[in-house]
Amino acid sequence: MASDVTALSNHTDAHHTGKCLCGQISYEITGQPIFIALCHCVNCKKWTGTGSGWYAFFNKEQVHFTQGQDTLSTYTDTDTFRGTTLLRNFCPTCGSNLTAVLTSRHELTGVTAGTIEGDICEVYKPQIEVYCKDRPKWLPELGMKQFDITPNVSRA
Predict the structure, then answer these.
(1) CB 3.0 to 4.6 Å from 91: which of 20, 51, 100, 128, for a disulfide?
(2) What is the tens place of the pLDDT at every residue in 32-88?
(3) How many structural domains are present in the chain?
């Protein structure tokens, strides 16, 4: 399968932690993300309550829940554009959206960037925008690759 997006470097020395708003559920991440994306699909807009979802995608082995995994709630989203199932994981207490996993790409975990601790907005800038067919018209160009749907991604 050809790749539309080149993955970030494979440096493994990065370590980040994250948690939900109330702190009941926390996690740690080792290594760099494979890619970072803004998703403008209708379902991500509804899930985040904003104009887009911002996700850092990691191999599932890089993301480990350190607290509260047994309380994590999952919404099984079967009404996706491509017809694939997306597992949307969130805190049942505060409602923070934490991770998303496509069952067809179960080796990847999308972590909602806003739940990662620290100055993540400067460290992990989005590389691509997906579902730009649903992108708000008023949003200025952000200078990254844009796709009408989800592109193919492979390791660098």
Answers:
(1) 20
(2) 999 999 999 999 999 999 989 999 999 999 999 999 999 999 999 998 887 789 999
(3) 1
